[in-house]
Structures are given as C-alpha cells and as structure tokens.
Recover the amino acids of this structure.
C-alpha cells in the first residue's frame, strides 16, 4: 500500500513568499513601545497585512540578527475621518509585537 506523507515545516512554503523588507514596514517608536522594550524586551512593528506570525519571526531574526521568543499580531481597523461633507476611513494595518530572548536587543537609535 502507498503511504500518505504529511507536509513537514521544513518543506518550502506554498503561495506568496515575501522578503524581510517587504514584511516589516516600519518600527513603531512610541512611549508605550519604549517602555515595553526596556522592561519586557518586546518591540512593536507595522507589518504587511499578508504576513503571518512565522513570516514576522523569520523577518525579524534575519534583519536584526536576534533570537525571537514569541510574536503577537493585531489587526488594526481604520478610523473614521470626516472632511467637510465627505466621510472616509484611514487604512487598516497590522501590528506585530515581537518578544526577544533575554540576551538580545534591538537599538533603533
């Protein structure tokens, strides 16, 4: 009988593959983010909406040469805005909070 093979994580991913510079759009440097980075060694980034947690982990480890412990992602909804008689919304975006290993750090400045 023929055996069924399951897909392993080491196989090449199918679908769209983004480079690290396409995944991480910019770091979010805010007062809350700076507190989080000094106290918990966690950093926030605006990431591509198509990227998942595994993509974000791979991109941060490649770009900054650090060890990632875990990744949290949040989908942020656009806010309603009004200009004269026209109603619109700001764009929706994705935020990733990346916690690093205790011996690694990222310096933005």
């Amino acid at each position: 009988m023929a055996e069924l093979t399951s897909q392993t994580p080491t196989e090449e991913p199918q679908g769209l593959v983004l480079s690290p510079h396409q995944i991480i759009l910019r770091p979010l440097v805010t007062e809350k983010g700076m507190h989080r980075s000094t106290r918990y060694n966690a950093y926030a980034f605006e990431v591509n909406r198509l990227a998942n947690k595994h993509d974000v982990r791979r991109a941060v480890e490649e770009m900054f040469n650090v060890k990632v412990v875990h990744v949290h992602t949040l989908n942020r909804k656009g806010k309603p805005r009004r200009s004269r008689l026209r109603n619109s919304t700001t764009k929706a975006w994705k935020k990733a909070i990346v916690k690093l290993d205790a011996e690694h750090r990222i310096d933005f400045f």
Summary: The longest helix spans residues 53-64.
